[in-house]
Write a structure and sequence with these properties.
The protein has 60 residues and is mainly alpha-helical. Helices cover 80% and strands 0% of the residues. The protein is elongated. The termini are far apart.
C-alpha cells in the first residue's frame, strides 16, 4: 500500500468512519477490494494514533 493511501485511510478513520465504510470507499475509488485481514492490519497500524487523537479531543 502506498503512503498516500495509508495517510488517507488514517484521516478517514480518525473521523469515526468504520473500517467497513473505509473498505467500501477504497473499493469504489480504486476498484480493489481489501480482505478483512488487510483492514485489521491497517487498523493495528493506526490504533495508537487514533487513541492519542481521542485523548487530545477529550481534553479540549
Amino acid at each position: 500500500m502506498n503512503d498516500d493511501l495509508e495517510t488517507t485511510i488514517v484521516k478517514i478513520y480518525k473521523n469515526s468512519i468504520t473500517t467497513r465504510e473505509i473498505a467500501s470507499l477504497i473499493s469504489r475509488m480504486y476498484g480493489h477490494y481489501y480482505l478483512a485481514s488487510t483492514k485489521l492490519n491497517i487498523s493495528k497500524l493506526v490504533d495508537k494514533d487514533i487513541k492519542t487523537f481521542h485523548q487530545i479531543m477529550k481534553t479540549h
